[in-house]
Write a structure and sequence with these properties.
Two copies of one chain form a homodimer. Chain A is of the alpha/beta class. Helix content of chain A is 39%, strand content 19%. The structure holds nicotinamide-adenine-dinucleotide (2 copies).
Chain lengths: 209, 209
DNA sequence: AATTACTTGTGCTTGCGTTCACATGCACAA
DNA sequence: TTGTGCATGTGAACGCAAGCACAAGTAATT
């Protein structure tokens, strides 16, 4: 893959999964190629923004024609390192955790939740979607299983200790749904999704005055 | 409330719920006042960023002393229009929808999901957390109930039609969990949370090379 | 070969957001 | 009343991101 020497904006990285998803669905709808203009309308991003985002990584389109959807999707998968399956572990098999385990949408990006943990003795040993819930004390097996990604869906007050345990088990990427700031070594990436926080902005936007 | 004439950055609005949450939890831990430095460490934001964010709305602190947590929380609630309870409707009582209905964390910001809809005849009439699931065909009652906020947790291919129905029912703010771009009139605010998209960035960050 | 229609890739401008650095102001003590 | 310590509030500098506008390149037609 041809690579530019420029710094890549983090906002660009943030949009790439959105683009990839859009391309996959366009393919499913029977399209084979698309212009930046049409694609921009489809995913809700300005067309020159899209062209610029791609330009950081190479020249993926054909002037006067547009982009080959299949080819572009492969390029983006490569950039995001989504070419191979990524195994992930989920800690906290509660309401949200169960929903995420059952969510087929993660497959689109090549993710597979292959290990689930909890500390509730009533839940340990049971299964969700054919995956047995394990005792969180056995988190150490992630190293053996070579799992690098952890998803935290435990209550807020258990989030930091869970993160610590994940790091100890060799995890280098954490997706955190608990509404709190988590401290990790700087070689570990944490992405926190604060669902309630998104909703909390709504009244500001929709209330007159 | 004293108001500056400056334009307020959207990123500032995005951080306010985070601040409010941090303040509430600090209060629960017994603190009464906090400095921007300490608070910054607590929520994971640079301290001068915090001071600047507040400065768009007034002078909430005391020089040499810090911020009165209770007072600051009230100010932020006022800015975000979270002083009164906001009723919300949720469409799609599936895995994710059920988790969100059961989530107590929305109360912190004053949200109350008072109406739930689905189109599955097996679900209509049943209850989740004492809330009866209604037929989505009856979405029109939102106008009578004066509900302004809708939460979409239906499958992707039903998201746009659900949004259309919500808009028709008078909703002006939509929190959308479906992985797709939704088109609405410009007096309606849509916030889309693409959970899988967050996870999809992880391999880029944690993979060497 | 020349013309037309179309769309990409990108230099440049503009705008937005973050961080620095310090003057300002408060509290408390001597 | 003066001095010391501390933390806020903000102008100014910096850095990052978005969008414009057009040259460059492709395809199809005459
Ligand atoms: N439910 C939602 O829609 C929602 C929305 C936004 C954020 N969240 C956040 O996600 C997290 C989980 O929410 P939930 O509604 O699924 O809660 P839940 O109580 O249904 O589930 C939490 C699970 O974690 C387990 N657990 C508790 N402590 C543990 C520990 N130390 N180690 C391992 N497992 C442990 C519990 O046994 C339980 O199964 C919370 O932090 C919550 O704030 C939830
Ligand atoms: N489950 C997750 O963890 C998760 C994560 C990220 C995104 N999402 C997204 O959230 C949405 C819901 O996911 P889910 O896992 O809860 O799916 P689900 O299938 O469990 O639930 C969907 C619900 O919507 C109902 N429904 C379908 N069409 C409808 C219509 N036209 N009107 C009203 N109700 C309708 C169904 O009867 C069902 O109860 C999907 O768009 C999914 O992509 C889910």
């Amino acid at each position: 893959m041809y690579m530019k020497h420029k710094r890549i904006p983090d906002e660009t990285i943030r949009r790439l999964p959105l683009y990839l998803r859009g391309l996959v669905f366009l393919l499913q709808e029977g399209h084979l190629s698309v212009s930046s203009e049409k694609f921009g309308d489809y995913v809700g991003v300005n067309s020159s923004q899209i062209r610029k985002d791609f330009s950081y990584f190479g020249e993926f389109g054909v002037r006067g024609v547009g982009y080959d959807i299949r080819k572009l999707a492969i390029e983006i998968k490569g950039i995001l390192k989504l070419n191979e399956i990524h195994k992930a572990a989920l800690i906290g098999a509660g309401n949200l955790g169960s929903a995420i385990i059952s969510y087929p949408g993660l497959q689109l990006y090549g993710f597979d939740i292959t290990a689930v943990f909890d500390n509730n003795t009533h839940k340990i040993g049971k299964k969700i979607r054919d995956i047995e819930i394990l005792d969180v004390a056995k988190l150490g097996i992630l190293k053996k299983k070579n799992i690098q990604i952890g998803i935290i869906t435990v209550p807020r007050n258990a989030a930091q200790e869970t993160a610590d345990a994940l790091v100890k088990a060799g995890v280098t990427g954490i997706l955190n749904f608990s509404p709190c700031y988590i401290i990790v070594p700087k070689n570990v990436k944490v992405i926190t999704i604060d669902i309630a926080g998104y909703l909390a902005r709504m009244p500001y936007y929709i209330t007159a005055g």
